[in-house]
From TrEMBL:
The chain crosses the membrane at residues 6-28, 40-64, 84-106. Keywords: Membrane, Transmembrane, Transmembrane helix. This is Branched-chain amino acid transporter AzlD. InterPro entries: Brnchd-chn_aa_trnsp_AzlD. It holds the Pfam family AzlD. It comes from the Bacteria.
Amino acid sequence: MTLTQQIITIGLCVLGTMTTRFLPFLVFRENRETPKFIQYVGKFLPSAVFGMLVVYCLRNVNILQGTHGIPEFISILVTAGLHIWKHQMLVSIAGGTICYILLLHFC
């Protein structure tokens, strides 16, 4: 990549990032009510994304071979338990990930 191409690429990345950061504030002004569809998406999209991540993580688990999916199942239980206990997404994800890594290396 030439220097000119690198500068253009960085500029486009900055433009894209700044647009996604400022566009919601320009589209949804303080003095207007947020549309019902946006409220609906804001309410249910995080759960849908989390569900999609679970499906993505379990797509290659074979219960007929190897560990039979036991580390994955235990890690899902730990993640769910941490989320029910703490209600913190970062704690839940980090705890489940750490549990899964430890189970893979020590079992």
